[in-house]
Amino acid sequence: MASISLRDGVLDIVESGAGKPIVLLHSLLADRTIFDKIVPALARTRRVIVPDLPGFGGSSSAGATIEAIADRISGLFGALNLGATADVLGNGFGGFVASTLAIRHGGKFDRLVLADTGMSFSPEGKQSFYAMAERVRKAGMGAIIEVAMKRLFPEDYIAAHPEIATERRNALLNTNPEFFAEACLALAALDLTSGIATIRNPTLVVVGELDAATPPEMARALAKALPKADLIEIPGCGHAPMAQSPGTFIKTISDFLALT
Predict the structure, then answer these.
(1) What is the pLDDT averaged over residues 59-75?
(2) What is the pLDDT of residue 7?
(3) Among 253, 34, 49, which Cα is nearest to 165's?
(4) Model-level pTM?
(5) Among the CATH numbers 3.40.50.720, 3.30.450.20, 3.30.390.30, 3.40.50.1820, which is that of 2-121+191-257?
């Protein structure tokens, strides 16, 4: 674990492995440990960098815009001497950050994996973020914890794997409520529709068939709008396939990232 001091703040990261770098960006409803089940597989051939996004864990806030968060992440490439060969994988909130990173700083890295994300939310989706922000500011993270679990995983998976649900609940309960609220407002305000076609990084869009947080239709629209993108839907999975079905997730991204 290391704290990287950048021009505009601090990012807390963990690193493992060696080889072509890959940066993993986590969901709003998780922290960087959501990737723990796939890091060992990636680290066999890759240098894996997993930051806590700004406002999460030991990373300082970058404010309530996705653009500022993406700009903070862009500082990692120079600070860690990643060159322009690194790949970036973002899940959910991290996927919106990764897309924004590609729009604003796409020349700093190579391939892009966008898992369970999109370009913008419907009016109903935006309202849910406003409501979550208000609830956590008034009553803390516990106020949204059960809703968050149902957005992360299908209900039958939660019932069959209570230990995973407990692990994810504990991680989310450790999140700073004010910074979580900032992230909710950033997502509600975001609309990447006009910028998405400017992305030139080869891109793979992945989505769980049962994702209740960013449903498959959002991923389909994203893949269609991107100039160089493939789309893979993962049967039976929700918003966090890297945690729910890590082996399947690694197989899904393996060819695109040349992991073998």
Answers:
(1) 94
(2) 84
(3) 34
(4) 0.97
(5) 3.40.50.1820
